Amino acid sequence: KAGVTQTPRYLIKTRGQQVTLSCSPISGHRSVSWYQQTPGQGLQFLFEYFSETQRNKGNFPGRFSGRQFSNSRSEMNVSTLELGDSALYLCASSEGQTRNQPQHFGDGTRLSIL
Amino acid sequence: GEDVEQSLFLSVREGDSSVINCTYTDSSSTYLYWYKQEPGAGLQLLTYIFSNMDMKQDQRLTVLLNKKDKHLSLRIADTQTGDSAIYFCAEKNDSGAGSYQLTFGKGTKLSVIP
Fold first, then answer.
1. In which band, very low, low, confident or very high, does the pLDDT at A39 lie, cut at 50, 70 and 90?
2. Under an 8 A CB cutoff, do A99 and B92 touch?
């Protein structure tokens, strides 16, 4: 089975712009979660989608949003980019039905804000 | 609230055993995970343990869980230079509505000396 695929791998944007990141989960996985990784804050949970519905959201401003499509692929969007949004954004997928299913991560999208 | 603590650095000689420690605070955590991150990559799931278990062994990896003290450890036998990476401990928290999120430690950077 192919793993979790994230595109693009690298992005450079300027302050005030917006960005969309994409995640294709492992085939058959219906839950997709997003995490932000920075040197200062470490790994922080952004949100989780299951069957096109957001089930859970972390403590991030409304500039961070996401969605999930019927094929379980997910996108996250960040509007009005700030310098502090520079980070590695990781997507993880799981089957999502019961609590004993681990999350599998992609290689991430590294976003740099100039 | 949930919190996961790890020491930041560990240095071992090739061939020795490595032990990475982690403490967590959420007594309702059901599963605890170890992930490995190599430079420029995402998180690789190494192993996980259910909270009603004391120990789990998987080839060179041994996980020990002391639920009373909320202490988790990962032992890597016969450590190799390819084991050099950052190791993250994570607990799975029930967010309600069938959703679970991972809370991560800051990661332990393992350096293996040839």
1. very high
2. yes
Taking one residue from A and the other from B, the number of pairs with CB-CB distance under 8 angstroms is 63
**A82 CA to chain B: closest CA distance, Å?**
23
Cα–Cα distance, A68 to A90 (Å, whole number): 15
Distance CA A107, CA A53 (A): 24
CA dihedral B23, B11, B85, A10 (to 10 degrees): 100
Instruction: Give the model confidence (pLDDT) of A46-72 as tens digits.
Output: 999 999 999 989 999 999 999 999 999
For residue A107, which residues of chain B lie inside 8 Å, CB to CB?
40-42
Residue appearing with tokens 């681990």: A102
- Contact of A21 with chain B, judged by CB distance below 8 Å, is answered with no
Question: What is B46-70 written as a DSSP string?
Answer: EEEEETT-SEEEETTEEEEEETTTT
Tens digits of residue pLDDT in B66-104:
999 999 999 999 999 999 999 999 998 777 767 778 999
Q: How far apart are CA B20 and CA A2, in angstroms?
A: 30
Judge contact between A24 and A8, C-beta under 8 A: no
* C-alpha–C-alpha distance, residues B73 and B54, integer Å: 11
Residues 46-85 of B with CB under 8 A from A: 48, 50
What is the SS3 assignment for B40?
A: coil
Q: Are A45 and A37 a contacting pair, CB within 8 Å?
A: no
